[in-house]
Design a protein that fits this description.
alpha/beta, Rossmann fold, 2 domains, six-stranded mixed sheet, about 20% strand, globular, binds adenosine-5'-triphosphate, DNA-binding, ATP binding
Length: about 400
């Protein structure tokens, strides 16, 4: 679990540090105070672009009128189940368009994937309120993140696939010369192999998540019947051998060449797959649900995810941006109870402290304002920064 956090020139924070207790941490403060910025900082303690999907260059603190942000850093001290302390750090040392985030573990530069040995942040953001009615690509990215938190190899497989896909499209749409057939074959072989592996991992993760959702039937959250739409995932779900999926993908890609070349887009392959969900109780597609209903379905899915991750050595950390505000009182109380029952560390944001009234005395409350953090004793904040922009 995270024991302390320190931010330097990160977004609206010049310099802030926060000792953290286990369990629930409530970040409350007005709009624009920096609550989401703090969650984003924690979400960077895992590979990827964090909960806003931003570039490293965007995250450096900028004063009004400044075009380029400062080099920034996020650091956390963790205490593992065995009582050992680990220091995780990430940030960029020089700014510029090519700014790359580096990762340090106990002071040593490490590949970002190693962060997953220690921490597995899972987040829910207001953007997910329309997850099931949103664009397909967004939903697939969300699902791939769930797959990847439990099966870290999945990220590399998807990235290999996406790289080969871009390369193949470049060959197919190059007007200056016909595509080199050997190169095209090689790329499609790579696509079929990585695509099949991704599809198998997705199907497996879906099965585990569905089992997790089914096991939560007694909770006051709506349940989703999940599915994966896409030929490769459908084969994997039906129990096909990976080799057969590779073959089917290879054939499909070859057949799709003229169509892809004409469209200038890749119209076939598991990047076009989708996560489907049925609101079980209502027996209707989740996409038709209200944003409150979709939020509750997503939260239930995320709780199933953290429950399954809790069985792994690296700890799940729940980051809930404005989630409680979207829930009615009964579900809010159930969410808080669940965080306690699962012994989860959860960071939750909300503009109003009374939203978290049920947690008074059971959680750490942190007031976020003006780029600073303050938490009553024994948890003393040291926000020294100020938000350079308006703070609602
Ligand atoms: N790179 C940056 N440098 C300086 N300030 C930034 C940077 N990026 C974002 N900000 C500022 O951070 C503030 C937004 O913070 P954040 O999104 O954390 O607010 P919040 O407390 O979650 O608000 P809300 O309740 O409205 O969701 C804005 O004032 C924004 O201008």
């Amino acid at each position: 679990m995270i024991r302390s956090l320190a931010l330097t020139d990160f977004r609206s924070y010049a310099s802030a540090s926060l000792p953290v207790s286990g369990g629930a941490v409530v970040l409350h403060g007005p709009n624009g105070a920096g609550k989401t910025n703090l969650l984003e900082a924690i979400s960077l303690l895992t590979p990827g672009k964090g909960l806003r999907g931003a570039t490293a260059a965007e995250m450096g603190r900028r004063e009004p009128g400044e075009a380029v942000g400062r080099p920034w850093a996020v650091a956390a001290t963790l205490r593992g189940a065995d009582g050992d302390e680990v220091r995780l750090g990430t940030g960029v040392q020089t700014m510029g368009p090519s700014a790359r985030r580096i990762v340090r573990i106990d002071g040593e530069t490490a590949p970002p994937g190693r962060l997953l040995d220690h921490l597995r942040p899972v987040w829910a953001t207001p953007e997910q309120d329309r997850l099931f009615s949103d664009a397909r690509a967004e939903r697939l990215r969300f699902f791939d993140r769930l797959v990847f938190a439990a099966h870290p190899d999945h990220a590399a497989v998807v990235s290999t696939y996406e790289k080969a896909l871009r390369e193949r499209l470049r060959l197919l749409t190059d007007d200056t010369r016909p595509p080199d057939p050997l190169w095209l074959d090689a790329l499609e072989a790579r696509l079929a192999e990585s695509g099949a592996r991704a599809a198998v991992a997705r199907a497996l993760a879906l099965q585990e998540l569905q089992a997790g959702i089914d096991a939560r039937a007694d909770r006051p959250f709506p349940q989703a019947d999940l599915g994966l739409a896409g030929p490769a995932e459908e084969m994997a779900t039906a129990g096909a051998d990976e080799a057969d999926i590779v073959e089917a993908l290879g054939e499909g890609l070859m057949r799709a060449r003229p169509r892809d070349a004409a469209a200038g887009r890749s119209l076939f392959g598991p990047h076009r797959s989708d996560l489907t969900a049925l609101h079980r109780e209502k027996n209707r597609p989740a996409a038709e649900g209200s944003s409150g209903e979709q939020k509750a379905l997503v939260l239930n899915l995320i709780l199933a995810q953290v429950t399954r991750l809790a069985e792994q050595p690296a700890q799940p950390i729940l980051l809930l941006d404005e989630a409680p505000a979207h829930l009615d009182e009964a579900r809010r109380a159930a969410l808080f109870d669940e965080i306690e029952a699962l012994k989860l560390q959860a960071f939750m944001t909300g503009t109003e402290r009374p939203l978290f009234a049920a947690l008074e005395g059971r959680a750490q409350f942190v007031a976020v304002e003006g780029g600073g953090l303050s938490s009553p004793s024994p948890l003393v904040g040291e926000g020294g920064g100020r938000s350079p922009t308006d703070e609602g």
